[in-house]
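Before our next group meeting I need something from you. Please put the record directly below this note.
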Amino acid sequence: MANRRLAPVSEQPESFAFTAENAEWAKGQIAKYPEGRQASAVIPLLWKAQEQNGGWLPQKAIEAVADQLGMPHIRVLEVATFYTMFALEPVGRYWIQVCGTAPCDVCGARELKQYLHERLGPSGHVSPDGNFSWLEVECLGACCNAPMAQINHDYYEDLTPESLGKLMDDLAAGRPVKVGSQIGRVSSEPKDAVTTLKDETLFDGSRVGAWRKRFEEEGLKETGADTTGEKARTEASAAESPKAARPDAGRPNESKAAATPAQGAVDPKSDKGEVTPDRTTVAVPRTGPETVGAPQSGRSYTMTPVKPEEGRPVAAPLGTTPEAGAEPATANAKTDGSQAKPVGITNADKPADKGPPGPKA
């Protein structure tokens, strides 16, 4: 299926041209597209050329369509070799295209291909009587009724090797055949029995068509006529709408917070319109130079033992922080540096401190 090539030169016709009727039809197809978009008609023209040539597409037909649409020959050849709907080699009077994709394959398409191979030979070859040729193709879109095959322009579904053989015999003999499902299935209904969508109300309008009654009643209402059940619907609508709050029912209309004036509001009862002190925050003016608060480290202070003789500072009381710029507080325990012990200075009652030991000689 991947290798789609043109027929041998020995089978190619020397020329191709549309008949007068088909040429007029082709002009109508091209006219459907705006100027400069004539290439969009390539598939319809190729299909008509294949139909005129007996069911297959020769090289000269591909080139004729390309010239008519102003397309390079290779562009039209790409289209013709891509779609399996275009036969590139001569086909039989009845061209059988068997679907070989997964749904059909699991439902019996392998048996159909084996039967055709035994009766007609390899795919792509025409039977000796010229009536049949066959080809395996990709999905044809009738998966619900698999396995299936397309013969010329019609679908034949729910096939078995036996039913396909009888179908081919009838076609060869010119007898009428049944198109579609070969087991009497209608459309794509379940194969054995209908088990779903059996409720008659789904189709008579009593369930899914309930909207029609509502629209009819609204139409009567617009004309001024009384509608059945209008009063009941009005009462039901009123019952669903929210009611206003009633203070006597324990539902206050507004909260007390909304009635309280904002902080700093003017008391209307005051003669001078002054701000009431119980509702305002009074700022105490500061005297002296403006100071900036000391940065806080976020740590809590702990009391430190007071030992002035060891040179330790006295910790401030818990919770106090000195203001920046303030004079340092004096305390008996605060040292002035006299307790420091310089290196080499000795006291009368203590040996000299020679400092850290140096390197050994």
